[in-house]
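Tutorial, part two.
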Amino acid sequence: MIDFLRQYPEYWSDWSRRLLQGAAVTLALSLSAFLLAMAMGTLLVCLLKSPFAALRRGAQVFIQAMRAVPLLALLLTLYFALPSVGLTLPGAVAGALGLGLQGSAYIAEILRGGLDAVPRGQRESALAAGLTPWQALRWVVLPQAVRTLLPPLLNAYVSILKDSSLCALIATNELMLAARAIASESFLPMHIFLLVGLFYFAIAFPLSLLSRWLERRVSRGHKSLRG
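Running the prediction step on this input gives:
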């Protein structure tokens, strides 16, 4: 064990610099993908609640397709198959797009569930008071839904963050690709991937704690309202 740990001080300055650069790319990649997923998820929810059956059906088909397709297959298609039709995407762009497309399907379900959790009478009362449907959504429904939406949305971001490691397979210089390069140079894969696991843990664990704290706050708020 002592011999195992002895390697870290010797290589730490080089390893930490390169892994921190990869971690910065991972954060930027996952955040870009999450914002795309939020935008597309919001659009999908609007389509799901559309009065037009064709739009609702199209949104449902897209959601089911994105949830059924393995993320790795989607990333490889975007990176390797699109050039055959004349569209070449950089690895980071293909990664953010793939993560965002699949993430949007899950976020759409989260948003729909959060909006549906608000009693219908709240919206009807707002409309009866003279608000437009958009004003009722913005000023009455959304403020109540946000409390229940934040914890699952944070969990969705953590999932996207962890799934971004697959982008190493499409030449995206994120944390996992940096780790693979260092491991091939140093011939110390166990040391490197253990360190990478700690990097992911340091990023994801605080978000998981925040999500749990928000869930407890929401649960207490619901109990106080029932009381």
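The domain at 28-175 is CATH 1.10.3720.10 (MetI-like fold). In part three we will examine how such features are distributed along the chain.
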